[in-house]
Amino acid sequence: MTYRVCFVCTGNICRSPMAEIVFRARVTEAGLDELVEVDSAGTGGWHEGDGADPRTVAVLEDNGYAGGHTARQFQPCWFSRLDLVIALDSGHLGALRRLAPTEQDARKVRLLRSYDPAAGDDLDVPDPYYGGTDGFEECLEMVEAASTGLLAAVRKDVEGRVA
């Protein structure tokens, strides 16, 4: 049974595709790519069909990540097939929980940085869209830091299903 994770930000061109590509790389490195499916979406549909922001692509490529991306909008009906819905900031967290058809679905929504013990109380990944490359680099650092803890949690869930 495939374990499914979906990362969600606002437009699905900056933060969530970055998280998707980084986490997919972590899943592959861990040898879990046969068991874990990773994708992303946006709370809004403004950029549906577009590729990732060129700054996202550049920062990812500069750090050894590869992967294509096409933006899409998150749909409430997806909750039934997802195991985890990872919000990139508290605004997305609230929006996704309001979209959730059931309380069980709402419990699937988590903030990405909640998986980073060093994050403290600041669990939002800032939106780099209106800034320069440094914001995208900061976003990548946050995503990478949280991916370690997220991978450990997903591995535990996957192993619990197999056992």
Description:
- The chain is α/β, with parallel strands linked by helices.
- The chain is built from 5 helices and 4 strands.
- It has helices at 15-29, 54-62, 90-99, 103-106, 133-162, and strands spanning 3-9, 36-42, 84-87, 109-111.
- Strands 2-1-3-4 form a 4-stranded parallel β-sheet.
- The longest helix is centred in the C-terminal third of the chain and has 30 residues, at 133-162.
- The radius of gyration is 15 Å and the shape is globular.
Features:
single chain; 163 residues; alpha/beta; four-stranded parallel beta sheet; 42% helix; globular
Written as H for each helix and E for each strand, in order along the chain, the element string is: EHEHEHHEH
Which secondary-structure class do the elements indicate? Answer: alpha/beta
Number of strands: 4
Helix amount: 40-55%
In round numbers, the mean pLDDT is 97
Q: What is the makeup of the main sheet?
A: 4 strands, parallel
Number of helices: 5
Q: Please tell me what the overall shape is.
A: globular
DSSP strand (E) fraction? 5-15%
Give, in spatial order, the strands making up the sheet with the most strands. Answer: 2-1-3-4
Poorly predicted runs of 5 or more residues = none
Measured distance between first and last alpha carbons: 12 Å
Rg, please?
A: 15 Å
